[in-house]
Design goal:
heterodimer, A: mainly alpha, MetI-like fold, 77% helix, B: mainly alpha
Chain lengths: 312, 257
């Protein structure tokens, strides 16, 4: 190789390295400073002792480093927190399930529509997601409010049966409806992305072999859509697990979830170490479940596609 | 052709109704001549009039606007860099840092930044909120820009380099104009995310600073009045306008393939 071209290659490689450094460094440094370091500080804070007036006590006191597991011990020994955590997981699971039930027909309909309408139908699902989160919560305050038509109708029916009127607002029902409402688009998008790719020939073949609509759905469409289901479930479950505003606004006193306890620890009780422990448990739970969904989705996909291939 | 699936249509129609009826109710009651959001009494613009004379609300809207402008500007520059870097170079750390803030529950970023700012003795206020918003907007801008780059012919940039352009000239005169729609769409997205953000703002704003979502929150915690409907309607209109512009600029964002 001639000397000049290798020299040129070398300078272009070093200038490329410089270019790479130039474009990646600013966002990298910013996110290290305003995302990674605060997260690490929070992890560190979970091993500290709360300060006398909130926040944290001094890191080094009387020459001793203040690091302990007290807040973790508290989380695992005081059963009330474990209960709230389990309740949060339960609400998030219910939200995921109802989102799936509502999202499936929407996604299936969009996937079957003529190509020119698909973008519009999909946009109509995403659009409400872009309105302010609090507006969407507020909307349910109106709908479920004691003077609104829905509560009056529900209580009218109940009174026929001689039942006491029940408030719809400030209840677990209100919290769940709103959780489903807010997260629905996250389930529709991955489901649609999956359903859109399905091969119509498979369904036609099944029909030719005598499968009815229900069998075609359960034995072909649904199993093939599982990767989309898992992706949607992760996208709904993770944000639903950490939510605090919906129980705060629409829930009763028993509807406090893990997000509400975290908020309380940081803004009211000002027990940072314990709040940090709760936040870490929340993150770990969210990431473990998301990882699980991704793993199950991938292994399902692997066996399905290889199975389909061997059958073909 | 198989027969039309009526049940599917009905279920999907119910799904769309579920998505839209609540928002329509908010808008309709913003014009209702009654304090209660219960029965239609008559048309009025009183709630909008009250809104524009509500000093707290106007101050909150001003704060939201300042934060959103600063946050979208800075996060667009940083997010474009991140998008370009993630598309062109093999980097391991950058995608993790860019995408994790989007993937984890929002409250975590809120509380960790609260600890961070307080420990640094950084006064909570407009600046801390803007810094926090930039951090979570970078990822969204980066995703949009990277998507735009993926749909573009990279050989154009190489051709510019072969013709003797410096990397900066090639970027400035070839790559940037080509990805510009993606950059603008990312900026509008960041603006919308910032002006709508409640959770992270809630933790990083401190006691004295109020943004529009924080103002709405305290109003609905105290009493529900149609003034909230009016401000909600205006906010929805603003978001809708921004989304329409953004989608015009990058149709691929909405295209299904």
């Amino acid at each position: 190789m001639p000397d000049t071209s290798s020299h040129k290659a070398m300078t272009s490689r070093s200038s490329e390295r410089f270019g790479k450094w130039l474009v990646s460094a600013p966002p990298l440094v910013y996110l290290l400073f305003f995302f990674a370091i605060p997260a690490l500080i929070m992890v560190l804070a979970s091993f500290r002792t709360p300060g006398e007036f909130g926040g944290l006590s001094p890191l080094v006191e009387d020459g001793k480093l203040d690091l302990n597991l007290d807040s973790y011990v508290r989380f695992f020994t005081e059963s009330v927190y474990a209960q709230i955590f389990v309740k949060s997981v339960w609400y998030a699971l219910l939200t995921t399930l109802f989102c799936l039930l509502l999202a499936y027909p929407l996604a299936a309909l969009i996937a079957r529509s003529p190509k020119k309408y698909r973008d519009l139908l999909l946009l109509l699902v995403i659009l409400p997601f872009w309105s302010n989160f609090l507006i969407r919560v507020y909307a349910w305050m109106i709908i479920l409010g004691p003077n609104a038509a829905m509560a009056r109708a529900a209580n009218g029916v109940l009174s026929w049966f001689g039942h006491e009127p029940v408030p719809l607002l400030f209840s677990s029902f209100a919290v769940l409806v709103c959780l489903v409402y807010v997260h629905l688009p996250f389930m529709v998008l991955p489901l649609y992305a999956n359903l859109e790719k399905h091969d119509q020939a498979l369904l036609d073949a099944a029909q030719d072999l005598g499968a009815n609509g229900w069998q075609r759905f359960w034995r072909i469409t649904f199993p093939l859509s599982l990767p989309g289901v898992y992706a949607g479930a992760a996208l709904v479950f993770i944000p639903a697990l950490g939510i605090f505003a919906i129980p705060d606004i629409l829930g009763g006193p028993e509807d406090s979830l893990i997000g509400n306890v975290i908020k309380q620890q940081f803004l009211e009780t000002r027990d940072w170490p314990f709040g940090s422990v709760l936040s870490i448990v929340l993150t770990v739970a969210a990431l473990v479940l998301a990882g699980l969904a991704a793993w199950v989705g991938r292994s399902q996909l692997g066996t399905r596609s290889s199975g389909a291939l061997s059958r073909a | 052709m198989r027969k039309r699936p009526v049940a599917l249509w009905a279920a999907a129609a119910a799904g769309y109704a579920f998505l839209y009826v609540p928002l329509i109710i908010v808008v309709v009651y913003s014009f209702n001549n009654s304090r209660l959001n219960a029965e239609w009494v008559g048309f009025t613009l009183d709630w909008y009039d009250k809104l524009f004379h509500n000093q707290e609300m106007l101050a909150a809207a001003g704060n939201s606007l300042i934060i959103a402008l600063v946050a979208s500007l800075v996060s667009t520059v940083l997010g474009t860099m991140a998008g370009v870097a993630m598309y062109r170079y093999k980097t391991r750390l950058l995608p993790i840092l860019v995408l994790t803030p989007i993937a984890i529950p929002e409250i975590l970023m809120g509380v960790s930044l609260l600890i961070f700012f307080v420990l640094l003795n950084f006064t909570l206020g407009l600046a801390s909120v803007a810094l926090a918003h930039i951090a979570f907007c970078i990822g969204f801008v980066a995703i949009v820009v990277r998507a735009r780059l993926a749909g573009m012919d990279e050989s154009l940039t190489e051709a510019a380099r072969d013709c003797g352009a410096t990397p900066w000239q090639a970027f400035r005169h070839v790559t940037l104009p080509l990805i510009m729609p993606g950059v603008i769409a990312g900026a509008l997205m960041a603006f919308t995310l910032s002006i709508d953000d409640f959770v992270i703002t809630f933790f990083t704003a401190g006691a004295g600073t109020v943004t529009l979502p924080l103002q709405i929150y305290s109003m609905i915690k105290i009493a529900v009045t149609p003034e909230v409907n009016a401000v909600s309607t205006l906010l929805m209109l603003l978001t809708l306008a921004l989304i329409v512009i953004a989608s015009r600029l990058t149709p691929s964002l909405l295209r299904s393939d």
